[in-house]
Amino acid sequence: xxxxxxxxxxxxxxxxxxxxxxxxxxxxxxxxxxxxxxxxxxxxxxxxxxxxxxxxxxxxxxxxxxxxxxxxxx
Length: 74
What we know:
Radius of gyration: 11 Å
Pfam families: DUF1128 (PF06569)
Protein name: DUF1128 domain-containing protein
Number of strands: 0
Shape: globular
Structural class: mainly alpha
């Protein structure tokens, strides 16, 4: 997947990847469609952090989830 081009499809791909990597218990509540291409760079940053680490600490997971919550449409 080419993540260099902002698109809703790429946003959804990254959100699904992040949810999988973080093994989020509330993943069903975090719908990829709730995120906008307007926040693409921020989502890409979160995606790269999540996918770039073999293991994430609890505090890292909490920080990433918090940031995703901030970016989600209300």
